[in-house]
Amino acid sequence: MPVLSASMMRAILLLHARLNRALQGSILYRIQRSWSVSDTVLCMTARPALWISVIMRKRRVKKELDNLQPYPVEILPAKLYMGNFKQACDRQILKDLKIKAQVNISEQPAALFAEDKLLHISVPDSPYADLFSSFPTICHFIDAQLNYGAVLVFSSLGISRSSTVAMAYLMHSSQLSLKEAWEYVRKCKTNMRPNRGFVKQLSDWETQIYGTAITDISEPNY
C-alpha cells in the first residue's frame, strides 16, 4: 500500500465512512459492503480514475434508488392491495397491479377512476373519527369490485386508516378474528398502526360479526 500522510488517511477514512452511510440499506451497499478501507486507499492512489468512476457510480445508483416509488403491499394475492395517496395516483402502479377500483380513506379526493369504481370515505386520522359505520359499505363495495379486478385501499400515508379497513375486510371476508387480521396485515406491512379509536371500532366490528369480542385490545399489544 502506498505511504500516505496522516491528514490524507483521515480524509480517506472520512470519505469511506460517508459513502457507506449514504448507501446504508441499499442494494448496492449490501453488494459492496466488503469494500475495505485498504481497497479505497489503493484505488485512490494507484488508480484515481477508477476511484472517481466508483464514486460516480455509487452516487448515480443512490439517486436511482431514492427515486424508486415503492408499490402498495399485497393483502390478498392479485386481489386486494393497501397503499398511500401517492401510490394511488401513480398510473403506472395502477396499470402494473391491474387495479380496477379504489377505496379512498383519506380526506383528499382522488379522481382516477369512474364514480362506480371509486368509493371515497372522507375520514380524518383521529381517535374520534367514525369508520365503523362505513365498514359494511366498504366491505360490500370491495366484494363487488373483486369480481372485475384488483382493488386498492389507500389513505394519506397508508398506515392507520387503510390498515383499519384492510383488517375490517379480512374479518368480514375470511372469518378472521381481530387478532388474526392484525397479525396478517402486520406481516404485509410492518409499520401499519391504526389509532386507538380505530382499534376500538375494529373490536366492535369483531363483536358484530361473531356476537362477542374475541380479541383483548388492551395496550401495548394493540
TrEMBL record:
Transmembrane segments: none annotated. SUPFAM superfamilies: (Phosphotyrosine protein) phosphatases II (SSF52799). The lineage of its organism: Eukaryota, Metazoa, Chordata, Craniata, Vertebrata. It comes from the Eukaryota. This is Serine/threonine/tyrosine interacting like 1. Residues 1-22 form the signal peptide. Gene3D superfamilies: Protein tyrosine phosphatase superfamily. GO terms for molecular function: protein phosphatase binding; protein phosphatase inhibitor activity; pseudophosphatase activity. CDD domains: DSP_STYXL1 (cd14517). The keyword Signal applies. The gene is STYXL1. GO terms for biological process: negative regulation of stress granule assembly; positive regulation of intrinsic apoptotic signaling pathway. Keywords: Signal. It holds the Pfam family DSPc. Residues 71-211 form the Tyrosine-protein phosphatase domain. GO terms for cellular component: mitochondrion.
